């Protein structure tokens, strides 16, 4: 299949949590939740969000002067729709009608120059700015610490250039994942970036938060695809990337990638593209245990040949997530791996898995995963309705630390949530020669204060990650949720250096206050 | 062959220009030089370098207190041997007895803590510091703008750790290329980093200057090998790299890599390693023209499979450099490509070259290149003696810009050196999906003022690179020679950000004054 793998045309750019995307929780899952003590809570009242002080006339006039009055929205509905991202904590606060992170206005610039003009004038008009593209942050990346205007980049939606000789494309920041694929597919190319937020997230967000997609084994991370970028800052524009690689000083692209809007707003990027594949293959493999599967995926990561998609679930994730219990041979245990190829099936990859003890389960489990792979986030709202608390977190480390890291995080979560014993699911979905990511999903019954319940669990997990030598995020980013852990990870001197960079670009601190640093 | 390819045991850590490495210029080359109007100049007087003011007793006492008096050298010979790098301009100044870049002392710390203590105390003692590992800079990277102490890192020569599961090695900054390979070979591994400076350059220099080696098609650049590093700064230590990749903010490793000693001294790095190959293959290929070869190497870079070494000479380099004129079929013209494999010969690579019009010349030219591949820099001194001016420069760009960039740089050099018509040789030796490097060698007769002669030519080349959209350096770095062009490339706001980072780490400006920024 090719087209069916890219569900682009039928999607409207929306956000998780949109009632139009409501997903039913499978009956089997509801049954399983009962074993965790999950009971449907009394629906909390959902107060209408309270108004906050409006912008002054002078502030609105400034915004209108830059983008046009018709592209400035200060109505409650628009502001509320741009409030926060999609962490479980965000959802809980949203449901509680908590307006503390609501922007004062939303503006829609149409060009780099308009973004630059907005940033240049914000300090004078006492406005902080939060860049917004997909709104899919799960780390508190849209929660500035003072009142702010949201800059929604959806009108920067163009493919500005496609260089077929160099195989690069220049895409504006507001192009969403499916739109980017459609624009490139029209020319015979693909970006190959399919994070779980694919349907809603956009190019600018991918870059600003160092996204990594489900095809990262074949296409790399988004920060590895970017060969050039344009950044608007309150003090002017920075353009980087004269060549794929350079020895002309530090790689400043890698200083801007991951800066999460704190240094400026990325308005366009130049990305490596590849010919669109004419065939794709997905299949499932069974291993006796997570440890056995770990050895197999490490072998592929280190000696190849890597498939395009490589994913390994642990025992609990395998047991919990499978719609069809027969997939693994009628409950025989073991763990499920998914591999996928963009292009011809590579028997050499399969041979490595077989040699490592893998059993080929055929295309069935591969297709099940492929067709459902963007669905999980949509389950959160109905699961919250049912009284479950569901959240994910992720890390990465060098291979030798992976087993102990997995154990430590799992134990930390189980310990912190002992009053509501959780299920902790885990998978590996991004591999490198020297290490891999670990992605955890936690499911338990909601307590009376689920925000605090998760805060405690998350803190314990963060401590476990730090103690076991992992990074605080492999692909979700820092936002506000990971700020303290991030600073501990890189150390106070490096944080000072980042603050110095921010001060250079943003001396008045108007950009994303409280995010990252 | 395997061992013979790594000439490690017989090499002493020296520097180019060492009389012990004297190389005869081939008679055929001398004959060819006559056509360029090259005449052996009257040997310039080589005055003994003049002494400069010595360090004060307090300064020497401070240095001795940190590293021990026996590891502080202020004798003229040692200081002179640590003066400058190995650009042709450096050589000419060295020959003229120009002491303007001579350090006041050379110190040899033995540990990260000693380096950190040196940096912490230098401001108080009014000492600037130039880090020194291999001394192989060709861009004025060892020429601080005020009097300074050189910190020679040769005693930091240990393999601190080797993680076989993660395939990482922790190497100290002073480990030279051959020593690193020897240390890793003892454990069955290789780094795979073989720049032309391999015999003399060291791990710290590779990292600080973003080195790229001749096997970059297979092993990547050095900045792609580094997964962790430790930096000593005047204000403390920065340790980076919890995982191969992370979304925890900007990739600060890539801010330190390429900082050329301006932010701190890299004392150790964690690098990706690979199993040492048990076989290697090198061979030559002929293409009708550079353009035809360019299409072939681009095809390999974009669609694979890449060999470990991939190198394409243009018509002039092919004609000038070949020891054996019969290699290309008795002067039939065309251009020479070299491919090399670490591991089994890959027929699929050869098939791509054949399909692109290449003719396999067999192992002969490959072995000729392999055995001579570190020799070229040693020819510079005898060529200067003969009255020739020989220098190299390099750039990189996206594929679509490569042909025009090559033409523009060649024309700029020919124009600027019209009084002494030059030969301009060019090759591609580093490829990426989206672009490649271009490496130029210029040969002409010396004028009466060869330093000024080259300054003019280099300025013209730099302008041509900028105008044609190339980067000012693919793997030589910035140093002092490229500083102005570098600042033009990244823009004033980015330079300000770098200065802010430097001020954070080095508020008194003791580190490598004038280098990079």
UniProtKB/TrEMBL annotation, chains A, B:
Q: Which GO terms describe its molecular function?
A: alkylglycerone-phosphate synthase activity; FAD binding; oxidoreductase activity
What is the superkingdom listed in this entry's lineage?
Answer: Bacteria
Ligand binding (substrate): 380
* Alphabetically ordered keywords of this record: FAD, Flavoprotein, Oxidoreductase
Q: Which PROSITE patterns match?
A: FAD_PCMH
**Residues in the active site?**
439 (proton donor/acceptor)
Cofactor(s), names only, from the UniProt record: FAD
Which parts pass through the membrane?
Answer: none
The positions annotated as site (Important for enzyme activity) read 311
Q: Where is the FAD-binding PCMH-type domain?
A: 99-276
Single GO BP term = lipid biosynthetic process
Summarize where FAD binds, as residue positions: 131-137, 260-266
Concerning Pfam families, the annotation shows: FAD-oxidase_C (PF02913), FAD_binding_4 (PF01565)
- The coiled-coil regions, if any, are none
In terms of InterPro entries, this protein maps to: Alkyl-DHAP_Synthase (IPR025650), FAD-bd_oxidored_4_C (IPR004113), FAD-bd_PCMH (IPR016166), FAD-bd_PCMH-like_sf (IPR036318), FAD-bd_PCMH_sub1 (IPR016167), FAD-bd_PCMH_sub2 (IPR016169), FAD-linked_Oxase-like_C (IPR016164), Oxid_FAD_bind_N (IPR006094)
PANTHER family for the chain: ALKYLDIHYDROXYACETONEPHOSPHATE SYNTHASE, PEROXISOMAL (PTHR46568)
The similarity annotation says: Belongs to the FAD-binding oxidoreductase/transferase type 4 family.
What protein does this entry describe? FAD-binding oxidoreductase
